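Researcher: Here's a chain I'd like modeled. Treat it as a single chain, no partners, no ligands.
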Amino acid sequence: MDNVLVDFRSAFPLLDDTVKEKFKDNMDDIEGVFSLMKPMKNAIKSFEILAKHFDVYILSTSPWDNPTAASEKVVWVKKYLPELAYKRLILSHNKHLNIGHYLIDDRLANGVDRFSGEHIHFGQKNFENWNLVVDYLLKKETIDD
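Model: Modeled as a single isolated chain. Structure tokens:
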């Protein structure tokens, strides 16, 4: 979710400076921070498009030292993708244990580097934004048919 569907940095201007200083090395440990975040540009529309063509799930990690993060991620999904992602949120620190053809993630951490399908490295070359990701996946679907 973070930095793929959710603009993690969008919460920072809403935080008190003392909180930002206290958690400067672990901003994801701030209780309540995930409820402040906005979607990435074109993320919601892209999810809607992909959900018409693929069996789409949201796979995310919830920071272990933030007791509100998991519930806030559920609330975020309910707010921005209420019908399309209904009961389609998976929280895991071991993403490689999930099975799928594609995994869109901005990092290689938490088992992404061991995922058995294709990792679409969001924010990197060829996948810098959602438009490029959607175009790539829709072309792959056409080729694979």
